[in-house]
Amino acid sequence: MNLENTQVQMRKGILEFCILHIISRGEVYASDMLEELTSAKIMVVEGTLYPLLTRLRKAGLAEYKWVESNSGPPRKYYTITDEGMQFVKDLNLTWKELSKSTSEIISNKKSK
């Protein structure tokens, strides 16, 4: 089994959750999302991010608007929808349960 592949899969598993959290804070540009995800060691590339953002938009969880830029072409800024905000709240509960369960399992020193 390859450790790196498993680590990548773990990160991918929470990518949508993290992106929705970032968007839930207010308007955000895709490159700012990439920067935050990368600095948090959740490695992602544009080829992964943009299709995910499109899926979130088509699912009604996120939306975007074009904003003119003084230094180049217009930029697409993403925001969360009301449905997306409820989705994030529900995912937060799931995350807390999973985090608690995982912590319980990995901290259990008992041998059976």
**CATH homologous superfamily grouping:** Winged helix-like DNA-binding domain superfamily/Winged helix DNA-binding domain
Helix tally equals 4
Tell me the structural class: alpha+beta
How far is it from the N-terminal to the C-terminal residue, by CA?
A: 25 Å
Note the overall shape. Answer: elongated
Enter the CATH topology name. Arc Repressor Mutant, subunit A
CATH architecture assignment: Orthogonal Bundle
User: What is the highest CATH level, the class?
Assistant: Mainly Alpha
What is the percentage of strand-forming residues?
15-25%
Low-confidence segments, given as residue ranges, are none
Largest sheet: 3 strands, antiparallel
Mean pLDDT: 91
Provide key terms for this protein.
112 residues, alpha+beta, Arc Repressor Mutant, subunit A, three-stranded antiparallel beta sheet, 3 strands
Short summary of the structure?
By secondary structure, this protein is an alpha+beta fold. 63% of the residues lie in helices and 17% in strands. The two termini are 25 Å apart.
Describe the structure.
The chain has 112 residues and is an alpha+beta fold. The radius of gyration is 17 Å and the shape is elongated. It has a three-stranded antiparallel sheet. It contains four helices and three strands. It has a single domain (3-107), classed as Winged helix-like DNA-binding domain superfamily/Winged helix DNA-binding domain (Arc Repressor Mutant, subunit A, Orthogonal Bundle), CATH 1.10.10. The model has no long low-confidence stretch (mean pLDDT 91). The protein has helices at 3-24, 30-39, 46-58, 82-107; strands spanning 28-29, 62-69, 72-80.
